[in-house]
Design brief:
This protein is an alpha+beta fold and about 550 residues long. The chain has three domains: about 130 residues, Jelly Rolls (Sandwich), CATH 2.60.120; about 170 residues; about 180 residues, Heat Shock Protein 90 (2-Layer Sandwich). The strands form five sheets. Strands 1, 2, 3, 5, 6 and 8 form a six-stranded antiparallel sheet that branches. Strands 11-14-15-18-17 form a five-stranded mixed sheet, covered by helices on one side. Helix 1 runs antiparallel to helix 2. The longest helix has about 50 residues. The radius of gyration is 40 Å and the shape is rod-shaped.
Length: about 550
């Protein structure tokens, strides 16, 4: 796309060079009526009106004088921009028609822009008269000016083709970008709204380019001239909303809703106040977009956001571009630069996402290792094996059950160690197996209860197993030698909640504890699976200990 931009700038420089021709034009004059003698070069048009007035279904004539001071190399051509159907006369000679002037039959509307070749015998240096016999039965109340210009006939035909072909190349590039980023958004694991907005902006810019230059290869009758401008205006309106919106999201703008509301009100006001003035409206739209984007970018620079300086430079370049090029070219070049900046910001965002993904993979590996380490700690293995030896010697049958419970717990740990989320029932089975092992080790009567469990739910592995371990470690049994653990589940429209209760005597703490490695593991697992959409609390109460895991769904 950068190559397209440089080529576009070079093309603009070439196109800005005027052809080797020099002429002076005079304001056109008008007269309602139909007299073939009005086409003659030497006809005296004194008294004709400088305004067309409302001709309704009547035929009217337009005459304008041109002084050719320097002939071009090649055939002379004349370009006429006017509404209606008309016949064109050069020094009294008919040189072409645009549509069919109204007569006993209905008018056949012509196009708003037409080109005509001047015979070499009539293209001499000196004064010439262009006379136009016209009618405008469609849109009779539209008072559009008549513009007549001279150039080489070849350049009049080639220039639109060159511009259109190049604009189609740019439009194709934006269409491909729109499709690519749309697919990227649809197939992304973590969908970024900036990617979707960028895809829509690229597509709208593609549509804007096509609509702007479709007039060069599709004949549009003048009654439908404003339909194209309406579509162009609404696309420009949409772009003027989406570009600042993109920057507010990309740069984490705090007052996004306020700024976007003010932007919308401003654009609607521009539309109402300048209704029917399409070019002025589009200019004001783009100017408003530029001002609001500057506000967001200045705030981004203050917040030290990545890429903000680059976007500021691009926005300021618009001022320079407007000084040297007319509106159509400056608008599209400005949009190209802004879109390139967005593309640069997207690459920054993709890099951040990739780094976060690599960090998440690293975190996941660390958590897997931590889960395995939690269950093969030397003191745990040593104490468990010591208890196992005692049980095998005193009661081989119970020792066998102890061995089986320990093996079952390690089997579950092995199955879940590489998973991010596991079924809640598998987590509960892990807790029960751990209680069986600890019951043999500590000879305490551990009880397990559950309430409202949804079998279809998934949670991070060893989440409640870790809470259970903390309850066993930091609590002592009741006088009857028992401890109870209860897991409850509830759900609302906004969140899901697990409540893990430990019914036991709390041991006296020598110093305050904010949670050890177990809590670190729990929070890391919740962050891995739910981002910031979770809440974890664990507090002492009269009956023992209560831990609450709340997972937000909205």
């Amino acid at each position: 796309m950068k190559n397209y931009l440089f080529l576009f700038l070079a093309l603009c420089c070439l196109c800005s060079c005027r052809p080797d021709i020099s002429f002076k034009d005079y304001p056109p004059v008008f007269k309602t009526g139909d007299n073939q003698s009005w086409a003659k070069k030497d006809f005296n048009a004194i008294g004709w009106a400088t305004d067309r007035d409302y001709t309704k279904n009547n035929i009217f004539w337009v005459r304008t004088k041109l002084d050719l001071t320097k002939k071009p190399v090649g055939h002379l051509g004349v370009k006429i921009e006017a509404f209606g159907a008309f016949d064109v006369y050069w020094d009294g000679k008919l040189i072409g028609k645009n549509g069919e002037v109204i007569s006993s039959k209905a008018e056949v509307p012509g196009t708003s822009t037409s080109y005509y070749s001047i015979p070499d015998s009539l293209a001499q240096i000196g004064s010439h008269v262009v006379a136009i016999r016209a009618s405008q039965s469609y849109l009779p109340n539209v008072q559009r000016s008549v513009n007549v210009g001279l150039s080489t006939y070849e350049s009049l035909l080639k220039f639109p083709l060159i511009i259109t072909s190049f604009m189609n190349l740019i439009a194709g590039a934006f269409l491909i970008a729109a499709i690519y980023y749309l697919f990227l958004y649809i197939n992304s694991r973590s969908r970024q709204y900036t990617v979707l907005i960028f895809a829509v902006i690229c597509f709208l810019f593609f549509a804007l380019l096509i609509l702007e230059y479709v007039k060069y290869y599709v004949e549009i009758p003048y009654p439908r001239f404003f339909l194209r401008l309406e579509f162009i205006g609404w696309i420009t309106f949409a772009l003027s909303m989406l570009v600042p919106l993109y920057f507010t999201i990309q740069f984490k703008f705090k007052w996004k809703k306020i700024v976007m509301s003010l932007l919308f009100i401003t654009l609607v006001s521009i539309y109402i106040l300048n209704f029917g003035h399409y070019d002025i409206t589009a200019i004001y739209y783009s100017l408003t977009m530029w001002i609001f984007s500057l506000i967001v970018v200045f705030n981004a620079i203050y917040q030290k956001e990545k890429g903000a300086i680059i976007v500021l430079i691009a926005l300021l370049l618009r001022v320079l571009i407007n000084q040297f090029l007319f509106y159509d070219f400056s608008l599209f070049i400005s949009f190209c630069i802004i879109v390139l900046c967005m593309l640069y910001l997207n690459t920054i965002q993709m890099k951040v996402i990739e780094e976060e993904y690599q960090s998440s993979l690293l975190l996941s590996s660390k958590l897997q290792l931590e889960l395995i380490k939690k269950n093969i700690q030397p003191h745990f293995i040593k104490n468990t094996l010591t208890s196992l030896i005692d049980w095998v010697e005193e009661s081989p049958k119970e020792g066998t059950a102890f061995i089986q419970a320990l093996a079952d717990e390690f089997d579950i740990i092995n199955d879940i160690s590489e998973q991010v989320l596991i079924p809640i029932r598998q987590e509960i089975e892990l807790c029960k197996k751990h209680l069986s092992v600890m019951q043999f080790r500590k000879e305490i009567n551990y009880k397990w209860e559950e309430s409202g469990i949804d079998e279809n739910e998934f949670i991070p592995p060893a989440l409640f197993h870790t809470i259970l371990e903390n309850g066993i470690t930091h609590s002592s049994p009741f006088e009857d030698g028992s401890m109870k653990f209860k897991l409850s589940f509830s759900a609302t429209a906004g969140y899901k909640q697990y409540t893990f209760e430990t019914f036991a005597n709390n041991r006296v703490k020598l110093k305050p504890r904010a949670g050890g490695n177990g809590f670190v593991y729990i929070k890391a697992r919740l962050t891995e699976s739910y981002g910031d959409n979770w809440e974890f609390t664990s507090n002492e109460n009269e009956q023992g200990w209560i831990s609450i895991v709340k997972i937000y769904t909205k």
